[in-house]
Specification:
By secondary structure, the chain is α/β, with parallel strands linked by helices. The protein is built from 13 helices and seven strands. A five-stranded mixed β-sheet has the order 1-3-2-5-4. The relative contact order is 0.09. Bound molecules: zinc ion.
Length: 339
């Protein structure tokens, strides 16, 4: 737990100084795993309500609380508090860097260039921002992560329901789900859980590897929810594909010589596309991001008149929205659907 420690008290091995976040005149040493960061009390107290309280309230009389280290810097006596934290050094490195750059204000500039920002950075800002009440950083990062993974919030010149999935690496989905649970940000759950579903993504491994080699699996309860959701996902996909291809197109365009009428082309799609829903290697995604690019759909496109192709494309987007709205129910997240 948190607490001021006398330097060296009860430590098994001495931590290594971080090569980047170590300031000789620093007033606060954070010991995280085997790393020591030396920064400034004022920096942490300014951004974090938890550190502010820690430095203003008198320390509790507990055996792990010792006096701060005093040392001389340029002839001045500097008091340096030592705090042991039960977190990840990788995550604290990200957070300290961003706090030195101005906290959420510095982050907002980088958020506007999402490709510069690794998801694991955002996860660190959210996890530690929530835990240590660095509210601005936490909220800015949650919004940035939502924009990464929610197609409704895609900030691009494309229509939000155009045929491009969110630019989000599916291997990161398990840790997004875990973190959403820890910090209570349920809006992140439905799409992240869809990406954790093997019925949709057969290559899903269930474990994410961070850049420092730490591996984190999807939590058991949500893994179970994803398994339970399997047949609901298949049914939702079949229903959506049905609604795209089965209603008559009502075409009045005369087919070109050598071409079949549009309705006949649509009828021919039924079997191939419904079989594709449960393809063991490349099943159709319930949100149908690839449906219009599917081989049989592309073949149909060359036969359909422009008006019918537009109608079919519009149906895909409409059904994508229908499926999106049912994801909370499919994954047993009804209690958060209004969140
Ligand atoms: Zn037509």
């Amino acid at each position: 737990m948190l607490g001021y420690n006398a330097p060296g008290a009860g430590e098994v091995s001495s931590p290594k100084r971080d090569s980047e976040l170590w300031f000789e005149d620093g007033t606060l040493e954070l010991i995280v795993e085997d790393t020591a960061f030396r920064v400034y009390k004022g920096l942490l107290a300014h951004h974090s309500a938890v550190f502010k309280d820690m430095f203003t309230l008198p320390p509790l009389p507990a055996p792990n609380i010792g006096s701060a280290e005093s040392r001389s810097v340029d002839g001045n006596l500097v008091q340096c508090a030592v705090v042991h934290l039960p977190d990840s050094a990788r995550e604290w490195r990200y957070v300290l860097r961003v706090l030195i750059m101005g906290g959420a204000r510095g982050l907002r500039e980088r958020v506007s260039r999402p490709l510069d920002l690794k998801t694991e950075e955002l996860l660190a800002y959210i996890r530690l921002g929530h835990k240590y009440q660095i509210e601005d950083l936490c909220q800015t990062s949650v919004k940035a992560l939502e924009r990464h993974i929610n197609p409704l919030l895609l900030s691009s010149s494309l229509s939000p329901w155009d045929d491009h999935p969110p630019f989000f690496d599916a291997t990161e989905a398990p840790v997004v789900v875990n973190l959403a649970r820890v910090v209570g940000e349920c809006s992140l759950l439905p799409y992240a859980m869809l990406l954790c579903s093997r019925s949709v993504y057969p290559k899903f491994t269930g474990v994410f590897s961070y850049s420092d080699g730490t591996r984190e699996p999807l939590n058991k309860a949500d893994e179970e929810r994803c398994v339970q959701a399997t047949h609901h996902l298949v049914l939702a996909t079949i229903s959506a594909v049905h609604s795209v291809i089965l209603p008559p197109v009502g075409c009045t365009t005369q087919p070109l010589p050598g071409k079949v009428p549009c309705q006949q082309t649509m009828d021919g799609l039924t079997r191939t596309l419904l079989l594709a829903v449960t393809s063991p290697t490349r099943p159709l995604d319930p949100l149908m991001w690839d449906l219009l690019r599917h081989d049989s759909m592309q073949a149909a496109k060359s036969s359909l008149c422009l008006r019918c192709w537009d109608e079919v494309s519009g149906r895909v987007r409409q059904q994508r929205r229908v499926v999106w709205n049912t994801l909370p129910t499919i994954f047993g997240l009804e209690d958060i659907s209004g969140a």
